Amino acid sequence: MEFFKEVHSPDLKLAHLKNLLAINSLAELCVSINTVTELKENEGDIYCLWGAFKVRREEIRYGVRFSLLDCPHALAWTVTYNAESQNIVIHCTIDKTETDPDFVESIHEFVADWSNGLAQAF
After folding, report:
1. Cβ burial 80-89 (10 Å sphere, 16+ → b, else e)
2. How far is CA 15 from CA 3, 10, 44, 91, in A?
3. Which residue in 6, 23, 61, 84 has its CB near the most CB atoms, within 10 A?
4. What's the pLDDT band for 114 if we cut at 50, 70, 90?
5. Predicted confidence band of residue 92 (pLDDT cuts 50, 70, 90)
6. Phi/psi at 80 (nearest 5 deg)?
7. What is the pLDDT of residues 72-90, one digit of tens each?
8. 37-71 confidence digits (pLDDT tens)
9. Full 3-state SS string of the chain
10. Residues 65, 77: contact at Cβ < 8 Å?
11. What is the pTM of this model?
């Protein structure tokens, strides 16, 4: 399943977005993430609305991808910048085509919290 949100952010510099999206900034950017412990530059432990998970950060061409390594649904999300539309795009995926409606709703909440946090940051 896939979930999307966009945040209009004219003239955003991609390097600034990537720098902001550090492991130790996750709880500041998304209220669904309660605590973060950075273990390495691109890995850490988080406690979020679904519980405790190991998280990995990877820089990609137009942003950053985060993966919950021990999530039973293989949840991952990317935060990228589309320079043409001047939108930050939050794209979240899980490894199921159907799942519990409450879980689906919580993912929508998670993506909305990212959208709100990034809108406030920029």
Report:
1. bbeeeeebbb
2. 24, 14, 21, 19
3. 23
4. very high
5. very high
6. -130, 165
7. 999 999 999 999 999 999 9
8. 989 989 999 999 999 999 999 999 999 999 999 99
9. CEEEEEEECCCCCHHHHHHHCCHHHHHHHCCCEEEEEEEECCEEEEEECCEEEEEEEEEECCEEEEEECCCCCCCEEEEEEECCCCEEEEEEECCCCCCCHHHHHHHHHHHHHHHHHHHHHC
10. yes
11. 0.96
Which residue, chain included where needed, has tokens 């519980």?
A: 51
Please list, in sequence order, all residues whose beta carbon lies within 8 angstroms of the beta carbon of residue 15, skipping any fewer than 6 positions away. none
CATH code for the part of the protein at 2-121: 3.30.530.20
